[in-house]
Amino acid sequence: MSNGTAVTGTNALDRYFEITARGSTVGREVRGGVVTFLTMAYIIVLNPLILGFVPDSTGAFLGGGTGQGENLPAIAAGTALVAGLLTILMGSVAKFPLALAAGLGLNAFVAFSIATRSTWEAAMGLVVLEGIVILVLVLTGFRSAVFHAVPTQLKVAISVGIGLFIALIGFADAGFVRPGAGTVTQLGATGQLSGWPVLVFCLGLLLLIALWARAVKGAILLAIVVTTVGAFVLEAVLDLGARSDDNPGGWALTVPSFDGVVDVPDFGTLFQVDLFGAFSAGAVGVIGAILLVFSLMLADFFDTMGTMTAIGAEAGLNDEEGAPPHTERILVVDSVAAIAGGLGGVSSNTSYIESASGVGEGARTGLASIVTGVLFLLSTFLAPIVSAIPSEAAVPALVLVGFLMMQQVTGVDWSDLEIAIPAFLTIVLMPFTYSISVGIGAGFVSYVLIKLVLGKSRQVHPLLWVVAGLFVVYFAITPITDLLT
Fold first, then answer.
1. pTM of the predicted protein model
2. Residues 6 or more apart whose Cβ sits within 8 Å of residue 210
3. What is the mean pLDDT of residues 59-64?
4. Which of 48, 228, 349, 417 could form a disulfide with 75 if both were Cys (CB 3.0 to 4.6 A apart)?
């Protein structure tokens, strides 16, 4: 339903979140919020695994630990706390069904490209600075101006590319596809499907498809619950354990077994920040720190732009220019999330495309985000329960949502090469490079180039020239860094 609908709600909650106006119900919002949480809960387990095993330049580990993995519970608690607070903020301020958490890819960049060259406190300081820079760009209108300067058909391509990307995430997290010898990916670990967890994923996906085809209400949530129960039974009988080189048939991210129910959270990573520590001569240095902040900023900047466009399109909330409602508020909250992630010691937080799973369940408003945020906060105490849901049971939702977003591909005029080639590069490079930003950057640069060689440079918005130039620098950041540092 479009933003301009005249339908109004019957109570304060309904009117505030525009539930009826957007064609939704409180029940759908709650279900959507739960589904989004279930498809994102893996970050509570995965973020600690990425951040907790990397020593900084002094040999220290995140949160002041002295050994690898020593502070995983604290990192998990901090991850859930920041994600919960910022997702609630997104729901209550921007009123948009978008959840936030520590960004995958961004956390690896912070761990391996920043912390190893400075200290963890200095690395988080750069994350805070990156968030401040983005917030300034939002408040000055630059970030929104860039968004509106992008041609509508490129925005459609961004949504389609993200659909393929999250479908790939679903297949990869389930072990259905894996890195292969001499190939980018292959079916299973050996070119064939193997292992009981992959079977759980396949059965969960087939169940979801059947429920969706039958238009069963709550299809995604029901499929996740049923598949999780089956995973618990399977693990109890066969004791499959976690996937490893010695155990390729194990569970990918989370073993479905309870180790207690409630635990007291440890927030030891909070406020472990040295704002300008990376700028010192003994650390990264001024030029190196600036380049690292630039890299973080550009990835975060355009990941969010693509994500909110895709979510809004899938929910039917975008306007004629492809912009979701309350765009400015969404961008402000996302900028604050980057700052909060640094202050929380858990890396930059950003908008999650997995929110599309909740939209697929019917979520259309910020109430769904508040439900997701509350569940994240509860998970700081209920970490054993959260960590018991295997990815194989949750990620079939991502594959289905990938299909739903792929349907937007008809919005691109494939007979017009001036837009078709940039759209194609945008769509294919997101899953091929495992990066939303790379796909967007390739689309922008190729769009500007084609207009230039055809003598149509005046058709390119001035801001797109700036952004395309920034992406050229972004793609060449490694040789530039090596040259200047």
1. 0.70
2. none
3. 81
4. 48
